[in-house]
Amino acid sequence: MNKRMKLTEPEKKNKVENNLSKTANKKVFFLLFFLGFLFIAIVLKLLYINVFQGEDLTRKALNQLTKTELVRADRGIIYDRNKKELAVNVTKANVFYNMNFEKSESQKTEEFNIYKRAVLEEASEKIATVLEVSKEEILDIMVGDKIIKIASNISREKALELKDLKIPRLSIEDVARRFYPYDAIASHVIGFISDDGVGQYGLEAKYDDELSGIAGKNISIKNNSYTQIPLTDEENYAPKEGAYPVLTLDETIQQFAEEAALDARIKHNADMVSIIVQNTVTGEILAMANNRSYNANNPKAPVGEEQEKIWPNLSKEEKAELWFENWTNFCVSSQYEPGSVMKVITAAAALEENTTSPLKIYYCPPVLPGTKIICNTKNIGNKTMEQAMAESCNITFVKIGRELGAEKLLKYIKAFGFGEKTGIDLPAEIKGQIPANANEIGDIRLATLSYGHGIAVTPIQLINSVSAIVNGGNLNTPKIVDRFEDKNGNVIKKFKTELKRKVISEETSNTMKRLMKKVVDDGTGRLARVPGYQIGGKTGTAYIPSKDGGYEDNYISSFVGVAPINDPKITVLVVMQRPRGDFYAATVVVPAAQYVLKNTLEYLNIPKTEKIDTSDNRNIVEVPDVTGLLLSDAGKKIVDVGLQFNANINNISNASIVMKQYPEAGAMVNLETIVDLSVNSNIEEDKVMPNLVGKTEKELKTILKDLNVEYNIKGTGEVTYQSVGPNSKINSNTFVVFTMSISPTDENIRESKNDENNKKNLNKEK
Length: 766
Hints:
By secondary structure, this protein is an alpha+beta fold.
């Protein structure tokens, strides 16, 4: 058995030191190995980044530093046919401030905040002075650490004033804004643009791409403070301006249409009046007016007094619904039952198919056997087709429609463009509604179709079809843009007249012109006569379909007129929605059409086709229109032109108004001719609102006392507007608002000025 040798103390010490040395060496080895591995990994990563990712990372870095600023192109100016500006560009400016303050490492937080506050105080005071607002308003906007917008759409003058101040961190962006010189005139045709410069509605939307042009670019390398990095280049790409559309619209004729629509709507207290004027031969639209148009410079503002009253209490959704309603162009985007105006389509189809003739005799009973269709004329019995057209006899046209048959009638309804878009260069056009096929047309449907019920058309379809009837049978595509030009006046694109199809023969067209002339000479369109011209036309009065089915107890009245009918140049369509009181087209819309026809014929210098007897015209006068006027006002108006009048009642009050007159307005009669006036008897159930425009407050109170209605008078002076229109039925519960020529605000200003003058005079006396 071996004995273990004992180690001495020095030996033990050496052994421990050797073990520690080995352990340390191992740790150093592993550390060196790890560092070597890490170094190799870093080198490999760097090689990978440089070799494989270098190009991509460089591109990303440059993209972060490269700033691209779009330079918006000038939007094309919109002209009327005579190069009058309907939509132009004005220079405005947006003001921005960079809130990205950089704090230095040596700067304490408290010192930095004091410095930042002082900079903002100084900047806000200068900006507020130029913008004419309080400094506090600007400071309230100056929050965050990004670029903020201080103001938008400021004038060019104020923008230059701000630039001259050279405020650090402030930047000015020049922007072009759209301006419409005529505000609401033709706004449904022109449309407007959004804050982002995108076309909304009308031509602005239809031709947005052409009008917008091509935007330019400014490309530069900038740091986070949007300062260009030294020794770097800037690339500039110039914008290309938009095209300049020249419309077929004539601003002067548009004004005629706007004036006539406004006057007719106010006189008959209607919801809306729409008027289209078309070149009969080419299909060009010379005017398109919807009364109660929105202001294109402020399209989201309420339209009309009714909307102004309820606007503050409406929700965003309710306002959006009204905006859509205000911006919709009734002439192309809405449909209605045209009524008797469609008889020209039935007549043209029957003549073309030789199932009738102008002198063919028809018997008109009071009620059509087997139906509820009644004759709306006083002359029952035998009559020619020509007489039936002039009198607008429903029963005769039901018989004409039956002779023609459902299949052929539908064939011509389609041929004249109903049930399809006309192709007019305006957005949101609808097709209307017609029977899908002849199998859907039973006996009753055939009867109603023949005189314009059971079919839905758009105004643009109707006027375009009537133009085709009288221009020789050519159905053209209506157009609103004649050509596109560049800013130098060079024609880029020209839109020619586009013939869609030939619908009827020249012979049928000539016959229809004679029939339509008879309507104006001896029938329901007599008020459309214009001295020196042969005028043709057709009236129509129809119930308005209810959303719940059936019909409302409201009407839509229309008239289409053509002049000169022997050599057609212009076609005019007037459509009135929901007139109050009298609703017959012969009296509510024909005068408006006559106004447009007469003024347009004279403006276009279209030669007169008829001789006017001037041998003794001193003894011939035109009968004025006095319906809806107080008897006292009507009598004065008649006497002033050299005529006499006779009322049909003895019991006359201050509120007695004229309901009917004979001879009718527009008739040419000898001096001293007696005009018979039918006056309401003024009993409770027969009370109607008179036309009180022009009356003073004193006169108003006297008349309203007899009417026994509640009322409110806004302002002083003379009445310029009444909330309940003439000829509207009224009772003791009726409430009427009268707007006077001097508003309360104007009155206060005037009183304030008078007070100041009185004080000055008193001081002088002292």
